[in-house]
Amino acid sequence: MITILCSGSRGDFQPYIALAIELKKLGKDVQIVGMRSFESFVRSYGIDYYPIQADFESLNVDKQMIKEAQSADNPIKMLRTFNKMKKYGAFVTDEYYSACEGSELIVYHPGCTIGYFASEKFGIPSVLASPFPMHKTKEITSVIMYGRVKANPIVNAMSYSMLQGMLWLASKDSVKGFWKKKFGKLPDNFGCPFERTKDEKHPAVISCSNFVFQRPKDWNEHIHQSGYWFVKETSEYICSIELSNFLNSGDKPIYIGFGSVFNEDEKDRLYKIVLDALDKSGKRGIICGMGEIQNLPENIFIIDTIPHSWLFDKVSAVCHHGGAGTTAAGFKAGVPSIIIPFSNDQFAWANRAYDLGVGSKPISRKNLTPNNLATAINYALQDEIVSNAKTLADNIASENGARDCAKVIANL
Questions:
Q1: Rounded to whole angstroms, how far apart are CA atoms 224 and 232?
Q2: Beta strand residue intervals within 155-257, DSSP E
Q3: What are 320-342's pLDDT values in tens digits?
C-alpha cells in the first residue's frame, strides 16, 4: 500500500487525487490520508481514504486565526500565522503516523513532515510531493517572494530558506512532541527534511508546468517536475438548464470566485465591486461561492460550486484569488487570468500570470475597486493576452505531470 499524506483545503487535495489515480493505473494500491471532511470527495474518485478524526471543528480552531491565515499578505504575517497554527498539529500527528503503519512507501505533502520520519522508522522509501516548486535554487525566487523583490541568486536562495523554514515551523513541534512521547527521544537526524532528496529512495515530485516555472537546472536529478497534476473527472458534469441558458444567451461571461479565502464579512463589499466593474466593462459574469444576492442584474449568474475543468473553457476570462490549483485550471483552459491575491503564494501566481502575458497586473485585495477591476478585465481581454493564454494551454496540454511523477513513485 502506498500512503499519501495530505493537508489543506479541497483544492489542495485535487492534485494528490490525480497522483493516486495514476498510481492505481500502474497497479499500485494507494490510500490518501487527510481530514474526515474530505472523505466522500476523495472516495468519489475511487480512491481509498484514511480519515483523520480531528478537524477544525473538533479541535476548536480559532476562526480569527483562519481569517488571518487567509489574509496573510506578506512574509511576516505568514510567519506569525504558521507559528500560531503549529499547536494544532500535535492533535493529528499520531493519527497520520498510524495511517502510515504497514505501508510500502509514503508520499507526503510539505505540511505533513511526519511522513518522512515515519518512513525512516519503518525503513521504507518516502517521497516529498509538493504542489509548488520549493527546493532551493539560485535561478528564480520562491513562491512567497516572487514578484515582491528584485531577484538575484542570493535573494533567490534565501527565499527558499524562508519558505522551507515556515513550512517546517508549522509541523516541527508536533513531530517532536509525538516522537518523544511515543519513543522517548527525537528521531534520528531530526530536522527540516525538505532538502533530503539526495538519492533514489527519497525523491521529490512537484506539481507545476515547466511552461509556467521552468525546472531549475541546479536541482539534483532526484527532484522531478514535468507538469501539473490534473484530475480527470469520473463523469461529465451536467449543469442546470438555467446555467446552460445563461451561457448561451450572449457573449462568454467572466468567471469570478475566491474559493476558500472568501470571507462572509466581505460579501457586500466584494459584490458591489464586482457588479460595478462588470457594469463599467460591459461584460457578463458568473459569480461562484459568494452566496445569494437580491435583485440580480440580467448580466450576472450566481452558482455555489462547479468543476473548474467544466466551466473555465466556456468563459472569456477567470477572475480569482490566485490559489495554485485555480490558477493552473485557468492556464489549462486557455483563458486570460485576472488575479486578486489575498495571501501567501497567491501573489506569486498573480505576478507570474502577468509576467507570462496571460493575465492582468495583480490587484491586491486591499486595493480592489470597481475602476481598477474593470481596467484589469479590459486588459485581460486584449487580443494579445487571449492569444498568449491559448498558447500556454497548448503547451501545458503537451505535459502529463501526474503520470510521469506516478511512474517515479511506482519504480521505487
A1: 21
A2: 204-206, 223-225, 254-257
A3: 999 899 999 999 999 999 999 98
How far is Cα 310 from Cα 329, in angstroms, rounded to an integer? 10
DSSP 8-state symbol, 144: T
Q: In sequence order, what E strands does 125-277 have? A: 126-130, 204-206, 223-225, 254-257
CA distance from start to end of the chain:
13
Of 77-81, 273-277, 278-282, which gets the smallest average pLDDT?
A: 77-81
Give residue 113's identity as a one-letter amino acid code: T
- With H, G, I as helix, E, B as strand and everything else as coil, classify residue 5: strand
Phi, psi for residue 385 in degrees, rounded to 5: -65, -45
pLDDT of amino acid 65: 47
Which residues, other chains included, contact 397 with Cβ-Cβ below 8 Å and sequence gap of 6+? 332
- Alpha-carbon gap, residue 250 to 297, rounded angstroms: 14
Q: What is the DSSP letter of 315?
A: S
Return d(Cα 407, Cα 412) in angstroms, integer.
9
317-320 sheet: strands from edge to edge: 300-303, 285-288, 254-257, 317-320, 337-339
Reported as a single tens digit per residue, the pLDDT across 178-215 is 899 899 999 888 999 999 987 888 999 999 999 999 99
Query: What's the DSSP call for residue 55?
Result: -
| pLDDT at residue 157 is higher than 60 | yes
Q: Does the reported pTM lie above 0.90?
A: no
| 52 beta partners | 35
Domains and CATH numbers, the chain: 2-225 (3.40.50.2000), 241-397 (3.40.50.2000)
| Upper half-sphere CA count for residue 103 (Cβ side, 13 Å) | 31
Cα 75 to Cα 71, 365, 366: the distances in Å are 11, 16, 16
CA distance 212 to 349: 9
Which amino acid, 59? L
Asked if residue 108 lies in contact with residue 185, where contact means CB atoms within 8 angstroms, the answer is no
Burial status of residue 27 (CB atoms within 10 A of its CB: 0-12, 13-18, 19 or more): exposed
Phi, psi dihedral angles at 328 (to 5 degrees): -60, -40
The grid coordinates listed for 287 are 459569480
User: What angle (nearest 5°) sits at the alpha carbon of residue 369, between those of residues 365 and 374?
Assistant: 110
Strand partners, 34: 51
223-226: long-range pairs with CB below 8 Å, 24+: 223/135, 223/197, 224/404, 224/405, 224/408, 225/133, 225/401, 226/399, 226/400, 226/401, 226/404, 226/405
Q: Comparing C-alpha atoms, which of 240, 250, 249, 232 is closest to residue 303? A: 240
Cα 254 → chain centroid: 22
